[in-house]
Structures are given as structure tokens and as C-alpha cells.
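In this section we turn from sequence analysis to structure. A common task in structural bioinformatics is to predict how a protein folds when a small molecule is present, because the ligand can shape the pocket around it. The inputs are simple: the amino acid sequence and a SMILES string for the ligand, here zinc ion. Study the lines below before reading on.
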Amino acid sequence: MLLHIGDRVRMRKQHPCGNDIWKITYVGADIKMCCEKCGRIVMLDRPTFDKRMKKLVEAAQPEEELNAIGKEALES
Ligand SMILES: [Zn+2]
């Protein structure tokens, strides 16, 4: 699955702080993500991340902006 910095994802297991939504802060061979509630940063390799991720909650903003620009270009 394709990931972007800024994406918000729900993980299968809750963080000890009770939150299960994480924000992606780095995408490469490893994935870095930040707990939305307590701010803890965790690094996982791709296979582990793929196994633990439940779903994408919200895609990163820049993509939405790009879509908006695309629509404007079509209308003009
Ligand atoms: Zn947490």
C-alpha cells in the first residue's frame, strides 16, 4: 500500500496511552509514525507496519490540495 507523510492510520493494537491513531512522519525502508495522543514516535519496518496497520483513516493533505488544483485546471 502507498503511504505518504502526514497520512493518519489506525493500528490493530492500541498504544498503552489508549490511542490507536498514528500520523506518518517518515516513509522509506522503515516507517516512522507519531502517536496522536501522547506524541510518542515509533519506527517500524515495512512488513511489520503492514501487518499492524488496520486502515488508513485520513490521507495526507497535500494530495487533497493537488486534487483541488486538478479540478480548477479542468474548469478553466
Ligand atoms: Zn500513545
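Residues 35 and 64 are 23 Å apart (CA to CA). As an exercise, try to locate the residues that line the zinc ion site and compare them with your own expectations.
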